[in-house]
Amino acid sequence: MRVLIVEDSQYIRESVALVLRESGYAVDESEEGRDGLWKAESNSYDVIILDIMLPGLDGLSALKKLREGGHQTQILILSARDTIDDRIRGLREGADDYLVKPFDLGELLARVEALCRRGYMKKNPLHEVGGLTINRHAKTVSLNGQAIEMTAREYAILEFLVLRQGEVVSRTEIEAHVYDEHVSPVSNVVDKSICVLRKRLSESNKSAPIIQTRRGQGYIIETESA
């Protein structure tokens, strides 16, 4: 999952980014309204965390421009403005959630997780493909009832493929949603991660790999083959 944080407070921005990255999210950051709007319009995000009081372009104006442009990304407003009228205005302008500063990082993380589920039209935290089960709340994976340990990034890749079950997901899409640093065009970091995932899954299931390769296209988790 990929998140954009548009927040001019360096302390808040870096604290939120750290928590999200530790939970397996890819994170982009911006400290200015116009730059944040440009990134939001130029990239695909699952959630945008948007402050209201921003230099250059305020958050509500950026929000309005995004919605007028047809962007449906889940947007969480993060603001010190805590009156009912402020919240109503933010939600009516197109925000999906509103969190008042100061806030608890655990609550923010839970709200981001909820918005991601909403974006994929999935409220049930359990996602099953054949014998594979992912719990998006607990961030756990099991295969045929056997728990599988994996890193946050490995989990993020597997979760992304499961949410796109039945669709071919390109290497570029995986890079964009899972890695928040620049990935070289000649890098095989995604291929290596897929290889590790297959090994972890095959240790619990000796049948054909759940993650299938479509040469020249990407990867797919197919219901029937799983």
Polypeptide structure, described:
By secondary structure, this protein is α/β, with parallel strands linked by helices. It has two domains: 2-119, Response regulator (Rossmann fold, 3-Layer(aba) Sandwich), CATH 3.40.50.2300; 126-221, Winged helix-like DNA-binding domain superfamily/Winged helix DNA-binding domain (Arc Repressor Mutant, subunit A, Orthogonal Bundle). The protein is built from eight helices and eleven strands. The protein has helices at 10-22, 33-42, 59-68, 84-92, 105-119, 152-163, 171-178, 189-202; strands at residues 2-6, 26-30, 47-51, 74-79, 97-100, 126-129, 132-135, 140-143, 146-148, 211-214, 218-221. Strands 2-1-3-4-5 form a five-stranded parallel sheet, sandwiched between helices. Helix 2 (33-42) packs parallel to helix 3 (59-68). It is elongated, with a radius of gyration of 19 Å. It starts with a strand and ends in a 5-residue tail after the last strand.
Short description:
The chain is 40% helix and 21% strand. With 226 residues, the chain is an alpha/beta fold. It has two domains: 2-119, Rossmann fold, CATH 3.40.50.2300; 126-221, Arc Repressor Mutant, subunit A (Orthogonal Bundle), CATH 1.10.10.10.
How would you describe this structure in keywords?
226 residues, alpha/beta, Rossmann fold, Arc Repressor Mutant, subunit A, 2 domains, five-stranded parallel β-sheet, four-stranded antiparallel β-sheet, 11 strands, elongated
